[in-house]
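As promised in the previous annual report, we have extended the structural survey to additional targets. Below is the entry for Sushi, nidogen and EGF-like domain-containing protein 1.
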Amino acid sequence: MARTLLLAFALFFNHAYAMIQLKDFYPYGLKNGDRNQTRRNDDQFDGPLKLKVPYPFFSGVYQSLYVNTNGAVSFKKGIRQYTPEAFPLNDTMLTPFWADVDTRNWGQIYFRETQDPALLLRASKEIQDIFLTHMDFTARSLYITTWYDVTYYGGNNATSVYDF
Ligand SMILES: [Ca+2]
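The corresponding structure token record, generated without further manual editing, is:
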């Protein structure tokens, strides 16, 4: 019990107060082989983007995904909704930062799938370190999506920017 509480506190503390620096992100950007969004936009998405390795997620196994401007990766369809909702949702999605992101004036969204051995090893170790019940986890493929210097609806290079 104490170990569980300690882990929960450590996770909360880490998420509440620690800031992840750009240098700690998985390599991103065109120089690392990423694609970027086909056009600057508000409330749009790219996809379906075919996966090399199918992605099992809850009750489904997905062959493709959608990268959504508003801070989400989805599997069944693109998401234009800019106001987040509480889970559970009807849409199958991962939401690192679901908000009203707008890249019309500033910011980029990069994405790629990779089987780079060094990155797979890094991801495997991170999952093993965080999820103590998955000490034997081995990543077979990574889909890296980076929202770089994006801003909110109507923003530009003079407004606050976010990276995730
Ligand atoms: Ca938006």
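Helices lie at 2-17, 117-130. Residues 113 and 133 are 26 Å apart (CA to CA). These points will be discussed at the next consortium meeting with the crystallography subgroup.
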